[in-house]
TrEMBL record:
InterPro entries: ABC_transp_permease (IPR001851), LivM-like (IPR043428). The chain crosses the membrane at residues 20-37, 57-84, 96-117, 123-146, 167-187, 217-237, 249-278, 290-307. It comes from Undibacterium arcticum. The lineage of its organism: Bacteria, Pseudomonadati, Pseudomonadota, Betaproteobacteria, Burkholderiales. This is Branched-chain amino acid ABC transporter permease. The keyword Cell membrane applies. It holds the Pfam family BPD_transp_2.
Length: 354
């Protein structure tokens, strides 16, 4: 009896389909939240989404692109100051200026990339930090934006508090959902395949026709844009900015912590890591320096016990993927012509990407 080997290519999972429904429910909740939540809850959630997006941007750089940067605070600060420059001095609507802050960060990332991409490995990481310090010192000497003491967002003074908080929260929600969706879409495209190939081996990917420098450049600029949006939105939320806080190293340290404990190289990891980070921060914020010591201890334990992070362990143990970016080939060997015919009749249930 003649048999044939059939296969299907799967790009979604049961968890991803459930996650899609869960995501829709979360979107509905976020839209309604400003109508019934208090101000402190809204401000905390805006801050949470800022750190979540920053962690996703760093994860895109390091977890998928293999670019270990410790200077993303440069673009957080640039985005924040771009907001203040356009809103306070350019008479632009502050909410629109958030997007402009991200664009300014992306524009400045172009010459920055030309400099730091000359470095490799640890030199690249240190170089990005040095560039961030250069930006901080430069901004500190610009009187227009308050110099070293910073300035307040006076452009928001004529907007009612309730309106300001609601719109800020909705912008934060749109930013978080939109950028995570964009990363997911990119990683499922040919660009994402090239990106992960570069992470695994630049030489091998280049031998297969991947333009390594161009892909890394695009990822760097996209990460700068997302980080700039984070800075603009964060300081729109707190209404005051200063160079030492906007370009603080703690921005990238927090992002690295979130990604490491959550799971580097996954989209779900930074989401879980951000939740853990904020729970720990709220619980330990009254303990002074012990807060940082406990955070460091947790990071060490996770890196030793679960090198791929908590979500990496869960994914490996239970094969649970809410954001599947890999293509999976399932081979099916019918034992008879009848079973082969049954398989062919069910082929329409599977979605192939070939």
């Amino acid at each position: 009896m003649k048999t044939s080997i059939n296969y299907v290519i799967e790009r979604s999972t049961t968890a991803s389909r459930i996650g899609l429904l869960l995501g829709a429910a979360i979107c509905g909740l976020l839209v309604s939240l400003p109508f019934w939540a208090d101000s402190s809850t809204l401000r905390l959630l805006v801050e949470f989404m800022c750190y979540l997006v920053l962690a996703q941007m760093w994860n895109l750089l390091a977890g998928y692109g293999g670019l270990i940067s410790i200077g993303q605070q440069a673009f957080v600060g640039i985005g924040g100051y771009g907001l203040f420059l356009m809103a306070n001095h350019g008479n632009m609507n502050p909410f629109i200026a958030v997007l402009v802050g991200g664009i300014i960060a992306a524009i400045l990332a172009v010459p920055t990339a030309k400099i730091v991409f000359r470095l490799r490995g640890g030199y690249f990481a240190v170089g990005t930090w040095v560039v961030a310090e250069v930006y901080r010192l430069a901004i500190s000497n610009v009187p227009l934006v308050g110099g070293g003491s910073g300035q307040s967002l006076t452009a928001m003074s004529g907007i009612p508090k309730a309106t300001r908080e609601s719109i800020t929260f909705w912008i934060a929600s749109a930013m978080a959902i939109g950028l995570i969706a964009l990363i997911y879409w990119l990683l499922r495209s040919r660009f994402g395949v090239a990106l992960t190939a570069i992470r695994d081996s630049e030489a091998a990917s280049e031998s297969q026709g991947v333009d390594v420098e161009r892909v890394k450049f695009y990822v760097y600029v996209l990460s700068a844009f997302g980080s700039g949006l984070v800075g603009a939105l964060y300081y729109l939320n707190v209404l005051r900015i200063a160079p030492n806080s906007a370009f603080d190293l703690s921005w990238v340290v927090s992002a690295i912590f979130i990604v490491v404990i959550g799971g580097i190289g996954t989209i779900e990891g930074p989401i879980l890591g951000a939740v853990i980070f904020f729970i720990m921060r709220e619980m330990l914020s009254d303990y002074g320096s012990w807060y940082l010591m406990v955070m460091g201890l947790v990071a060490i334990i996770v890196m030793i016990k679960w090198p791929k992070g908590i979500w990496g362990f869960i994914q490996q143990r239970f094969d649970l993927r809410f954001f599947p970016v890999q293509r999976r080939v399932h081979l099916i060997e019918p034992s008879s012509a009848a079973s082969s015919q049954m398989l062919n009749s069910n082929d329409g249930k599977f979605k192939s990407v070939l």
